[in-house]
Amino acid sequence: MSFFKRNTAPSGPPEYLIVGLGNPGRQYELTRHNAGFLFADLLADKNNTKINKIQFKSVTASIDVGGHKCLLMKPQTFMNNSGEAVKAAASFYKIPPEKIIVVFDDISLPCGRLRIRRKGSAGGHNGIKSIIYHMNSDNFPRVKLGVGEKPHPDYDLADWVLSNFKKDEIPSLREAAEKACDAVELIVKGDTDKAMSSFNS
User: Fold this and answer.
1) Where residue 150 falls among pLDDT bands split at 50, 70, 90?
2) What does the alpha-carbon distance between residue 101 and residue 112 come to, in Å, rounded to a whole number?
3) Alpha helices in 31-169 (DSSP H)
4) Which residues are CB-neighbours of 192 under 8 A, at least 6 positions away?
5) Catalytic residues
6) How far is C-alpha 105 from the geometric centre of its chain's CA atoms?
7) Mean pLDDT of 23-36
8) Domains and their CATH numbers in the chain
9) Per the CB 3.0–4.6 Å rule, which of 36, 58, 111, 198 could disulfide with 20?
10) What share of the chain is helix, strand, coil (3-state, %, to 5)?
Protein backbone atom coordinates (compact mmCIF):
# COMPACT_ATOMS: atom_id res chain seq x y z
CA MET A 1 0.00 0.00 0.00
CA SER A 2 1.38 3.38 -0.99
CA PHE A 3 0.98 6.44 1.23
CA PHE A 4 1.82 8.80 -1.62
CA LYS A 5 -0.95 10.66 -3.37
CA ARG A 6 -1.26 9.99 -7.04
CA ASN A 7 -3.63 10.49 -9.90
CA THR A 8 -5.83 7.40 -10.25
CA ALA A 9 -7.78 7.98 -13.43
CA PRO A 10 -9.86 4.97 -14.52
CA SER A 11 -8.26 2.87 -17.24
CA GLY A 12 -9.35 2.91 -20.87
CA PRO A 13 -10.05 5.81 -23.20
CA PRO A 14 -11.62 9.01 -21.84
CA GLU A 15 -15.39 9.38 -21.83
CA TYR A 16 -15.31 13.18 -21.67
CA LEU A 17 -13.16 16.06 -22.78
CA ILE A 18 -12.85 18.91 -20.30
CA VAL A 19 -11.41 21.91 -22.13
CA GLY A 20 -10.15 25.07 -20.45
CA LEU A 21 -9.65 27.86 -22.98
CA GLY A 22 -6.81 30.37 -23.00
CA ASN A 23 -3.63 31.48 -24.73
CA PRO A 24 -0.23 29.82 -24.25
CA GLY A 25 2.73 31.88 -23.09
CA ARG A 26 3.85 33.44 -19.82
CA GLN A 27 2.68 36.90 -20.91
CA TYR A 28 -0.94 35.68 -20.97
CA GLU A 29 -0.95 33.68 -17.72
CA LEU A 30 -3.09 36.00 -15.57
CA THR A 31 -5.10 37.68 -18.30
CA ARG A 32 -8.90 37.60 -18.31
CA HIS A 33 -8.94 35.50 -21.48
CA ASN A 34 -7.05 32.77 -19.59
CA ALA A 35 -9.72 32.07 -16.98
CA GLY A 36 -10.26 28.66 -18.59
CA PHE A 37 -6.59 27.76 -18.25
CA LEU A 38 -6.63 28.84 -14.59
CA PHE A 39 -9.65 26.59 -13.99
CA ALA A 40 -7.91 23.65 -15.69
CA ASP A 41 -4.82 24.06 -13.51
CA LEU A 42 -6.98 24.05 -10.39
CA LEU A 43 -8.84 20.90 -11.49
CA ALA A 44 -5.51 19.19 -12.19
CA ASP A 45 -4.27 20.17 -8.72
CA LYS A 46 -7.38 18.61 -7.20
CA ASN A 47 -6.45 15.40 -9.04
CA ASN A 48 -2.84 15.56 -7.85
CA THR A 49 -1.55 15.75 -11.39
CA LYS A 50 -0.01 18.16 -13.88
CA ILE A 51 -1.27 19.10 -17.32
CA ASN A 52 1.92 18.31 -19.19
CA LYS A 53 1.35 15.64 -21.83
CA ILE A 54 1.65 17.12 -25.31
CA GLN A 55 -0.96 15.81 -27.75
CA PHE A 56 -3.82 17.08 -29.92
CA LYS A 57 -2.22 20.55 -30.20
CA SER A 58 -2.71 20.80 -26.44
CA VAL A 59 -1.20 20.02 -23.09
CA THR A 60 -3.35 17.37 -21.40
CA ALA A 61 -3.83 15.20 -18.34
CA SER A 62 -5.96 12.11 -17.72
CA ILE A 63 -8.11 12.61 -14.63
CA ASP A 64 -10.99 10.98 -12.76
CA VAL A 65 -14.07 13.15 -12.37
CA GLY A 66 -16.95 11.52 -10.55
CA GLY A 67 -15.71 8.06 -11.43
CA HIS A 68 -15.42 8.87 -15.15
CA LYS A 69 -12.17 9.06 -17.06
CA CYS A 70 -11.74 12.50 -18.61
CA LEU A 71 -9.09 14.14 -20.75
CA LEU A 72 -8.35 17.60 -19.36
CA MET A 73 -7.06 19.88 -22.12
CA LYS A 74 -5.47 23.30 -22.47
CA PRO A 75 -5.32 23.95 -26.25
CA GLN A 76 -2.03 25.53 -27.34
CA THR A 77 -3.39 26.83 -30.65
CA PHE A 78 -4.18 30.30 -29.27
CA MET A 79 -7.77 31.13 -28.46
CA ASN A 80 -9.09 31.78 -31.97
CA ASN A 81 -8.13 28.28 -33.17
CA SER A 82 -9.19 26.28 -30.10
CA GLY A 83 -11.49 24.12 -32.23
CA GLU A 84 -8.53 22.53 -34.00
CA ALA A 85 -7.38 20.96 -30.73
CA VAL A 86 -10.85 19.95 -29.60
CA LYS A 87 -11.66 18.36 -32.95
CA ALA A 88 -8.39 16.39 -32.97
CA ALA A 89 -9.04 14.86 -29.54
CA ALA A 90 -12.76 14.29 -30.11
CA SER A 91 -12.11 12.55 -33.43
CA PHE A 92 -9.38 10.34 -32.01
CA TYR A 93 -11.45 9.15 -29.05
CA LYS A 94 -14.84 9.34 -30.84
CA ILE A 95 -16.27 11.67 -28.20
CA PRO A 96 -19.56 13.35 -29.17
CA PRO A 97 -20.12 17.09 -28.62
CA GLU A 98 -22.44 16.54 -25.66
CA LYS A 99 -19.50 14.99 -23.77
CA ILE A 100 -17.18 17.94 -24.41
CA ILE A 101 -17.29 20.44 -21.52
CA VAL A 102 -15.72 23.82 -22.29
CA VAL A 103 -14.77 26.32 -19.57
CA PHE A 104 -13.99 29.88 -20.64
CA ASP A 105 -14.11 33.58 -19.79
CA ASP A 106 -17.25 35.72 -20.08
CA ILE A 107 -17.09 39.52 -19.99
CA SER A 108 -20.85 39.84 -19.48
CA LEU A 109 -20.56 38.39 -15.97
CA PRO A 110 -18.99 40.10 -12.94
CA CYS A 111 -15.67 38.66 -11.84
CA GLY A 112 -16.28 35.49 -9.87
CA ARG A 113 -19.74 34.63 -11.19
CA LEU A 114 -20.58 31.43 -13.11
CA ARG A 115 -23.06 30.59 -15.84
CA ILE A 116 -23.65 27.08 -17.16
CA ARG A 117 -25.32 26.24 -20.46
CA ARG A 118 -26.11 22.91 -22.12
CA LYS A 119 -25.43 24.32 -25.58
CA GLY A 120 -25.85 27.52 -27.58
CA SER A 121 -24.25 30.13 -29.76
CA ALA A 122 -20.74 31.50 -29.38
CA GLY A 123 -21.98 34.79 -27.96
CA GLY A 124 -19.11 36.58 -29.64
CA HIS A 125 -16.40 34.43 -28.01
CA ASN A 126 -13.81 33.47 -30.63
CA GLY A 127 -12.71 30.29 -28.87
CA ILE A 128 -16.27 28.99 -28.81
CA LYS A 129 -16.79 30.09 -32.43
CA SER A 130 -13.81 27.97 -33.42
CA ILE A 131 -15.07 24.90 -31.53
CA ILE A 132 -18.56 25.21 -33.06
CA TYR A 133 -17.00 25.54 -36.52
CA HIS A 134 -14.63 22.56 -36.23
CA MET A 135 -17.14 20.29 -34.45
CA ASN A 136 -19.97 21.42 -36.72
CA SER A 137 -22.12 21.55 -33.60
CA ASP A 138 -22.99 23.90 -30.75
CA ASN A 139 -24.41 21.01 -28.72
CA PHE A 140 -21.72 20.97 -26.04
CA PRO A 141 -22.06 22.08 -22.41
CA ARG A 142 -20.07 25.07 -21.30
CA VAL A 143 -19.17 26.78 -18.04
CA LYS A 144 -18.64 30.52 -18.28
CA LEU A 145 -16.36 32.22 -15.76
CA GLY A 146 -17.11 35.89 -15.20
CA VAL A 147 -14.15 38.19 -15.77
CA GLY A 148 -15.92 41.54 -15.60
CA GLU A 149 -17.24 44.03 -18.14
CA LYS A 150 -15.13 46.55 -20.02
CA PRO A 151 -14.51 49.68 -17.91
CA HIS A 152 -16.44 51.76 -20.47
CA PRO A 153 -18.10 51.03 -23.84
CA ASP A 154 -15.28 52.55 -25.91
CA TYR A 155 -12.62 50.37 -24.29
CA ASP A 156 -11.06 48.03 -26.87
CA LEU A 157 -12.36 44.48 -26.33
CA ALA A 158 -9.04 42.78 -27.18
CA ASP A 159 -7.18 45.07 -24.80
CA TRP A 160 -9.67 44.25 -22.04
CA VAL A 161 -9.62 40.44 -22.32
CA LEU A 162 -5.82 40.49 -22.60
CA SER A 163 -5.46 42.67 -19.51
CA ASN A 164 -4.38 41.10 -16.22
CA PHE A 165 -6.76 40.45 -13.37
CA LYS A 166 -6.39 43.01 -10.60
CA LYS A 167 -5.00 41.76 -7.33
CA ASP A 168 -8.33 42.21 -5.53
CA GLU A 169 -10.12 40.16 -8.22
CA ILE A 170 -8.00 37.04 -7.75
CA PRO A 171 -9.90 35.69 -4.68
CA SER A 172 -13.23 35.97 -6.53
CA LEU A 173 -11.75 34.22 -9.56
CA ARG A 174 -10.36 31.44 -7.40
CA GLU A 175 -13.75 30.95 -5.74
CA ALA A 176 -15.45 30.79 -9.15
CA ALA A 177 -12.89 28.27 -10.43
CA GLU A 178 -13.55 26.10 -7.34
CA LYS A 179 -17.29 26.22 -8.09
CA ALA A 180 -16.58 25.42 -11.74
CA CYS A 181 -14.76 22.24 -10.68
CA ASP A 182 -17.85 21.19 -8.73
CA ALA A 183 -20.13 22.13 -11.63
CA VAL A 184 -18.08 20.10 -14.11
CA GLU A 185 -18.30 17.05 -11.84
CA LEU A 186 -22.09 17.38 -11.76
CA ILE A 187 -22.22 17.67 -15.57
CA VAL A 188 -20.05 14.57 -15.99
CA LYS A 189 -22.37 12.69 -13.64
CA GLY A 190 -25.36 13.69 -15.77
CA ASP A 191 -26.68 16.33 -13.36
CA THR A 192 -26.44 19.38 -15.62
CA ASP A 193 -29.77 20.73 -14.34
CA LYS A 194 -28.47 20.57 -10.78
CA ALA A 195 -25.25 22.32 -11.83
CA MET A 196 -27.27 25.10 -13.47
CA SER A 197 -29.60 25.57 -10.51
CA SER A 198 -26.73 25.49 -8.01
CA PHE A 199 -24.23 27.76 -9.72
CA ASN A 200 -25.89 29.97 -12.33
CA SER A 201 -25.77 33.66 -11.45
Assistant:
1) confident
2) 19
3) 35-46, 82-93, 126-135, 157-161
4) 116, 118, 141, 186
5) 33
6) 9
7) 90
8) 16-199 (3.40.50.1470)
9) 36
10) 40, 20, 40
